[in-house]
Amino acid sequence: MIFNTEGYVKKFTDMMSEGLIVIDHESKIQIYNEKAKEIFGINHVQQISHDRGVIKPGDIVIIGDNSIGRDDGNLNSKALECLGIYDNRIEKGDALIAIGIFNEAGVSPVYEILKSNHLERTFKLKTEFLDIEIGVVIDFLNKIITIEVDRQKFSMNYINAIGHMVILDKETKAMKFYQSQGYTARDESLNNILKGKKYRGKGQDSEILNVIGKDIFEIHRGSKTIQEFYEVAKGKNISYLEEFKEINGFPTMCTLLPVNDEENNRIGAALKVEDISEIKRVIRERDEALQDLEKIEKQLKEEVILKETFPKIIGESTKMEHIKKLALKASRTNSTVLILGESGTGKTILAKAIHENSKNKDKPFIHVNCGAIPDNLLESELFGYEKGAFTGAKIEGKKGLFEMANEGTIFLDEIGDISLNLQVKLLQVLQDKSFYRVGGTEKVKVNVRVIAATNKNLEIEMTEGKFREDLYYRINVFPVLIPPLRERKEDIYPLVETILPKICKKIEEESKRISAEAINLLMKYNWPGNVRELENILERAINLAEGNTILSKHITLNIKEVDYNEDGMIPLREAMNNFEKKAIERVLNFYKGDKKKAMDALKISKTTFYEKLRKYNIE
Predict the structure, then answer these.
(1) Contact criterion met (CB below 8 Å) for 485 and 531
(2) What pLDDT is recorded for position 295?
(3) What is the Cα–Cα distance from 272 to 275, expressed in whole angstroms?
(4) Which of 11, 161, 253, 535 is the most exposed place for a label (fewest CB within 10 A)?
(5) With contact defined as beta carbons under 8 Å apart, do 42 and 184 qualify?
């Protein structure tokens, strides 16, 4: 039969809209269609050309890495010594921008580090290095890294992490290599290039990477999914349909199936992969919404509007003003909002404020505490059930909370506590705005705005397999991080002024005021329980105070959390921090805000200087 020929197999598989990879029982690739090559960047044809080659001593290396050690070939501080960078502060997960000379002394490298727990939207470095204008920008919001050399730009998009690199020739200073999509398959990770691994050429006439006949682990390294793929080809009975998997840093929907011969002997395995472009669309939609809202925001008198719009969000610090601005933006869009913050920071108040200022403010606001409802009941609470769906169900059935929130807002508090099984159904609702009741066969459609909140680090939960990555991308369209009270102590006084009268009225006590000494004690406390703990301490103080004034003796705190000791003496570390902060402020005032002169006068590096500015909240 003509259709059994190799040429027709390739033609038919290349017509598929999904990627298809087939390996034999020895893990050798037999089919790797064009869509799979497109998904993993193997057939990527770049506009800018360069020849094949290898890095050489004296070459100029420019690096932009948003998360050290994650998708760059396990790069670490030791590997960076070839560029003259000797810095044991560089840790896995940190962002790095670096410019240096490969294996040649004499010229000091230029680099900056951003620690993994940062909240920055962009990370930039612009300098002149050996008379070459070089700029690197890591855009964490839009997930793109751009390296610019004498106005020529080399950009790479990423999903989770990426290591971007440009190499300039020692003699000519011309570009001899730049990183591009598919570098994992080409074995051209950042770390491998620095170890002397040869790289392929790019451009229309460059050599195409032929993967047929290669071992699957040469093309896809360090992936659990590829390991399963290999084990199935060897005979293990694993199969699944359309499961979310990450391969080479690319989020995909995968189907894994065994391949047997006519006698039912295992001869290989097939992996179908679909690119989850929906995530990219959601991110683009979010960015466009933010850009439109920025234009609107400039036309408003921010301070007046924010105070009138969010009277229940108390705080005058810079951080809380930023939160109010984000809340205003969130209230004017219908995108999904994810509110992050420690327990007691006011996530519920913020969620209600966003709803109350949205176009659907007259519609329902349904608050669901996902952590307080047992897992076996949560599904029926969220989606409802048909009559007779299970033992104990109401005869007439029950409408779920999603239906009750139709045309309005559903607030999924503590979403990080939802089980993996329920996460799958929740993802379906967010994607299609429809679901089935428990025991039902008729699809229920809803138009509901979702606001989610959690005190957990969902990125850590994902790495531990406790939270689905595709659900994280779906809810993390518009993230808002509420800072803890210890990071905005200037808000304590306005909070006390607002909370005190409310508590007095609630417990039917006459109005009370608070003394300066009591306020000073509150300012020294570290507030592990945040605003909720402040409310409890004030209510206790009101009950203890016999007169109409709350004194310091009425304030009951966990003494371990107070910055000063029992004798009123300041600890040595606190004294040193205060002295350091004042020294930096004095130098900045002397040089009228010129940071470069301040750095030189203090004799500290740029990285250390900016870390201390952030630490002490110096504007």
Answers:
(1) yes
(2) 64
(3) 10
(4) 11
(5) no
Average pLDDT score over residue span 490-506: 91
With b for 16 or more beta-carbon neighbours within 10 A and e for fewer, the 266-281 pattern comes to bebbbbbbebbeebee
Pair of tokens at residue 290: 């933010």
Share of the chain above pLDDT 70, in %: 89
- The confidence band for 585, taking pLDDT boundaries of 50, 70 and 90, is confident
User: Same domain for 95 and 21?
Assistant: no
Beta partners for residue 147, in sequence order:
136, 154
Yes or no: say if 53 and 73 are a contact pair by the CB < 8 Å rule: no
- Give backbone dihedrals phi and psi of 190, rounded to 5 degrees, phi first: -55, -45
- Please give the pLDDT value at position 562: 47
Tell me if 199 is assigned to some domain.
Answer: no
SS3 (DSSP) at 595: helix
Q: Are 250 and 275 in contact (CB under 8 A)?
A: yes
What is the predicted pLDDT for the residue at 242?
Answer: 85
Confidence of residue 300 (pLDDT cuts 50, 70, 90): low
What is the chain's alpha carbon radius of gyration, rounded to the nearest angstrom? 29
Tokens of 336: 């999904």
Same domain, 306 and 175: no
Axis crossing angle, helix 302-309 with helix 318-331, rounded to the nearest 10: 70
> Residue 200: inside a domain, yes or no?
no
Highest mean pLDDT among 212-216, 311-315, 587-591: 212-216
- Count other Cβ atoms within 10 Å, centred on residue 135: 18
Mean predicted confidence (pLDDT) in 576-587: 82
Contact at 8 Å (CB) between 454 and 471?
no
Asked whether 126 and 135 are in contact (CB, 8 A), the reply is: yes
Q: Do residues 330 and 354 make contact, with C-beta atoms less than 8 angstroms apart? A: yes
Using DSSP's 3-state secondary structure scheme, residue 212 falls into coil
DSSP 349-387: HHHHHHHHTSTTTTS-EEEEETTTS-HHHHHHHHHEE-T
CB–CB of 524/564 below 8 Å? yes
Best-predicted range by mean pLDDT (90-104, 278-292, 509-523): 90-104
Taking the CB of residue 518, how many other CB atoms lie within 10 A of it? 21
Task: Please give the C-alpha separations between residue 405 and each of 100, 116, 362, 382, 396, in angstroms, as whole numbers.
Answer: 56, 37, 11, 10, 20
Domains: count for the chain:
5
Query: Is 247 part of any domain?
Result: yes
Question: Same domain, yes or no, for 499 and 541?
Answer: yes
The pLDDT assigned to 397 comes to 78
Distance CA 478, CA 290 (A): 9
- Rounded to whole angstroms, the Cα distance separating 615 from 609 reads 10
Residues of the chain with pLDDT > 90, as a percent, come to 43
- Asked if 72 contacts 61 with a C-beta cutoff of 8 angstroms, the reply is no
pLDDT digits (tens, 9 = 90+) for 187-206: 789 999 999 999 988 875 55
Amino acid at 528: P
Average pLDDT, the chain: 86
Residue 46 to residue 64: CA distance in whole angstroms: 19
Half-sphere exposure of 36 (CA within 13 A, CB side): 24
| Domain with 591 in it | 572-615
CA atoms within 13 A on the CB side of 596: 0
Task: Point out the domain boundary residue: 481, 514, 532.
Answer: 481
Q: Which of 96-105, 244-253, 289-298, 319-328 has the lowest mean pLDDT?
A: 289-298
* Contact (CB, 8 A) for 59 and 293: no
Band of the pLDDT at 298, cuts 50, 70, 90?
low
Assess whether pLDDT exceeds 70 at residue 257. Answer: yes
DSSP letter assigned to residue 262: T
